Amino acid sequence: MAMSFKLLKNISRVVTFDDSDSIFEKADILINDNEIVEIRKGIEPVEGYEVIDCTDLIALPGFVNTHHHLYQTLFRGIREVQEKPLFPWLVGLYDFWRHITPEAVYYGAMVGFSELLRTGCTTTMDHHYVFPVDKPKNLIDVQIRAASEIGIRFHATRGSMSLGRSGGGLPPDCVVQNEEDILLDSERLIGKYHDKNRFAMQRIALAPCSPFSVSRELLIQSRDLARKKGVMLHTHLAETKDEERFCIEKYGMRPVRLMESLGWIGPDVWFAHVIHINEDEIKVLKGSGIAHCPSSNMKLSSGICPTTDLVEAGVKVGIAVDGSASNDGSNMWEEVRRAYLLNHLRYGTDGLDAYQVLKLATRGGAEVLGRDDIGVLQRGRAADIVLFDLNDIAYSGCHDPLIGLVTCGNTSIVKMTMVNGRVVVKDGRLTTIDTEEMAKKAHEVASDIVKKERQLASEKIW
Fold it and tell me: What are the boundaries of the signal sequence (predicted)?
């Protein structure tokens, strides 16, 4: 096979997040196909190299988004659910989400992927758990197709809800599934799409939605299937006091202790949010992963994740945008800034510094997703590289570029995003799709769904 070399030349600063926290000044990065083969000063191009001038740019590993609900990009700014905490917010949105189709899932994914790539994210997961009873069930397949078309590294999770209102759960019965169907489709998706190889562009995880929307039995069965097949587990946990009360009333224990009792703890498990926990529960979570979702937690008034305490206790922590309906964007660069600010709001001068927060967003996210081939810039790692241009006036007067990346700036659009050795964003624009046409079509699909539900609501039809 012919080798394909790219040389990123004259990078102002290369921030690696390797074991030595190496930072290279005025350096070059040589890439062979999808792999970094060398980082140093003065790499001379030879015939056949594609040379990319990176003068005055800063290079970081791509951000890794550890929690999302891509379909929610079609449900932003819905007036009926604004200014509400999680449970009432969910109840209001289930009415809209019961109308989602494969087409909606496709365009929702494309919108979210576009935002992520343009703001420096090279790897994302998605937690899709809404499968309306009267719609096709191939929604995860549709997401994977969208990820392949746009060129993002994708960890799709087969989410699920099995505990409807008739069984004491929160969601309406029209968006939950029986457990046999969930497990059969989970096994199908693993067999068809999960790639265990190094530099894999797609992987599958199993993700029952939450303790208040699935049964104890489904959590156990999903755990067993995931460990049999060698895939990871994910769910929401300890997000709100309402969830805590639900778990105590139904199971006689708090959320973290419930997960511990079910064997849902360890390096193959990561949780979204994890806000309402105590010191002993933090110790239980050592070795597991956490997706910290600052914007969502602020908008829904859920609370503040104890990020510093978790990191110090040996819990793996990454940063995440969460679903767009509670954020209302998929802006990974901005989420890094909010993670930094929210950490300082909680911990003051004992909070994480800018470098540490950037490390959570890159290497930290990779570790949460169980990967040792991304999240770091060094020889033998995937060529997932983001280049930032800090020459705008908004960075003038800032004396440390890494601090500036987190605290300064009027935009979150990056100069270049490279995924697996392929340039997918150049000068802030996607190279793989027409974003203007995609945005137009996505908004049409979204408008049709919302219009349909509002018409039904006005006629009092369920």
Answer: none
